[in-house]
Amino acid sequence: MTQSVVQQLGFAPTDRVAVVHVDDIGMCHSANAGAFEALENGPATCGSIMVPCPWFLEAASRARANAGFDLGVHLTLNAEWTEYRWGPVAGRSRVPSLCDAQGYLPRSVVEVLKTARPEEVEIELRAQIERALAAGIDVTHLDSHMGTLFFPQFFDLLARLAADYRLPVFAPPARKEILARRGLEKAAPLFAELEAKLAAVAVPAFDAFDADSLDFQPGEGPAHSAKRIGRVTPGLNWLLCHAARGGDELSAVTPGSAHAREFERTFYGGAAGRRAFQEAGIRTIGMRPLRELMRSKLSA
């Protein structure tokens, strides 16, 4: 009988196993400070870096200094903030369809879907991965900023990138009951298509995911986090957060969510978070074991 992914990783089939992932590393200094604090001190097990962003170089420096941390590339086609933007790594002349009127990456997913040429998307994403590798980052995985790549026109590209770089790609599992948490149950057939394409290149599949980060008001953080931990199911779970250090920079860059990012720094980067996962009996892992599992299958 075929073993589940968690069994292949050495866990029991009924174990609740969570990849606790910090998004948006490299976006700004506050994001770098909070993310590395979470990876050093908290239950966070891995994170991904936004290569086009202004603070990428600091993130890369810290990644080199902490080679044991599991860090991926947060594949980025959007620059969503109003007054804090970034452009493509490949250069505006090579990927003009990925640039808005100001020369930055588009703010919304819809804009990307309307204007991006597939061949230019591939040029840009490969440029991001290559820049991360050239910076000395031991890239453990790939994922998609804002979920922009989770649309059918990008599925083959994601599978190609996974195969070419021998890196696992996070994709939401095609389970209606899990997707319903984000109102995405009707997209289950599409995610099943993506899951199949990734499985064909040995990418391990997740059983559940929780992207319900930042959706809480000041003072609601403890209850919100407890609810998320309570939703972790048997099997392999992806639980993302946006840990960042509060202050003037974070408030200016992310005015609507700075309070949540700061709370997630204290929770996913501190003793309270560690204790909550331990008391719930949840096992936590990074993405490196999944990368090695994938590569062992590709080499078999």
Describe this structure in words.
- The protein is α/β, with parallel strands linked by helices.
- It has one domain: Alpha-Beta Barrel (TIM Barrel).
- It is built from 13 helices and seven strands.
- It has helices at 5-8, 29-41, 56-65, 109-115, 118-134, 155-165, 176-179, 188-199, 221-230, 248-253, 258-268, 271-279, 288-299; strands spanning 16-25, 46-49, 70-75, 139-144, 208-210, 235-241, 283-285.
- Strands 1, 2, 3, 4, 5, 6 and 7 form a seven-stranded parallel sheet that branches.
- The radius of gyration is 18 Å and the shape is globular.
- The model has no long low-confidence stretch (mean pLDDT 96).
**CATH homologous superfamily (4th level) name:** Glycoside hydrolase/deacetylase
**How helix-rich are the residues, as a percent range?**
40-55%
CATH fold label: TIM Barrel
The class by helix and strand makeup works out as alpha/beta
| CATH class descriptor | Alpha Beta
In what range is the share of β-strand residues? Answer: 5-15%
Shape: globular
Q: What is the domain total for the residues?
A: 1
CATH architecture heading:
Alpha-Beta Barrel
